[in-house]
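User: Look at the shape:
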Amino acid sequence: MTLNYRNRLMKTVSIISFSQLIVFAALFIYRYATEKTIPFEYTALTFDTSSVKSFIETLIQPYSFAALAATAILAVYTPVTCMVISYVFEKTQSPEILYFLGFLVGCMIETFRLCIPLFDLWNGYSEFLIYIGKLVFAGRILTVLSLLFSAVFSSDDKIQEADRNLIIAVVVSVVFATAVGIDTRTILPSMMVNTSFQSFFTFARIFIAAMTVIAFLFNKKTKTMLSYAVLFSGYICLTISENIITTTLGFILLWIGTETYFRGLHNYYLWK
């Protein structure tokens, strides 16, 4: 993939993600203005500051607005990060940037969890809910595969293969999302439906993350591995968050991990 084509692709994702953010914000505002309420499952939060234990229990209570905030963070994160990358790495031919674009697309897809409260899909079966579940599932596979490929195929001789590898990641994500079953009877406090073989796919994500860490270490990129671990931990926290403490932790880790990851990448290509 040429540098100009990659930059155009980056700008396209930036425009789409920013437009998505605006549309969801407008829909939430319109819904609240017309109906004076937005349906959530866990809207009550009991604050108890009588002891440290009680305060911690408050922070880990299921709270729908914490899940909403976590999803909103990812919705803002995608266009902002795209714009930063476009500015800082505009003239840098780096396969890592293209793979990170795949990660950002996965984050952008995660935003569709907002459709559940927005269209009041809490109450069971609907084709739209199944579509959202499969779409978000595909995005989650795409994120882990994109970061794995960034660790495995980041050498100079693999630059021309980056676009092909990213297409493979997209195809694999779509195939698994098409095949997976969606349990619309169970909507988690994190605003996500259950999928079939939930334990298997959770283990698979952990396994791929571990392989990514090993690949970074094998390529002698210890600092990159550490920033990846922080970044990915923050992303995972935001995707599963159902309480205040997980959302807060996810935001902090994602911000620190992204900043250190791109700083290291910038310094590497600056002195290369």
Remarks:
- DSSP finds ten helices and two strands in the chain.
- The domain at 3-270 is CATH 1.20.1070 (Rhopdopsin 7-helix transmembrane proteins).
- The mean pLDDT is 86.
- The longest helix spans residues 3-35.
